[in-house]
Give the backbone structure.
Amino acid sequence: MSMVWILGLLGGWLVLAVGLDMLGRRSPPADDAFEAIVVLGCRVFPSGEPSTALRERVKLAVSLFESRRAPLLITTGGTGDSGFAEAEVAARIALELGVPRKAIHMESRSTSTQENARYCAMQVPARRVLLVTDAYHCVRARRVFGRYFEQVATAGSVHPMLRLRLKGALREVPVLLAYGLLRWL
């Protein structure tokens, strides 16, 4: 394969990654109402501290909750390598930010976007959900959740460190393709 093809493939991959990040920054219209806001899980460190990405997701979700976009906040994510359930850590942050305990529901078994959607659908009788995840993850998350819910919208959080956001967006491109091949979209 010539260097031109390699550079073209890498350039296309970068364009797709940046495009996913840009698309995910769109929020649904302010007058759209939902039955639940779903915070997709993200890395938790062995100390039990959330990653910056998880903290940013929860902050955005709480802001949407406070603006009365939905009466219920669902945190998702099972126990990863850290030994802490992502859903529980996210719920703790939401409580610290003022969300009442009765408005928080946890789905703490899932280990993937596919499982986030399936387990949420099994536990919560909502039909209209607003997903909160990293901006570059919104396209895949909306498609996966669309298999389980009638109406799905997304609000993408933006990691403050460009290097980490770009790394995640670049990783998202092949994962999105894999989900398509597995027919999970």
User: Anything to note?
Assistant: The mean pLDDT is 91. Helices lie at 3-23, 52-66, 86-96, 113-123, 138-145, 162-181.
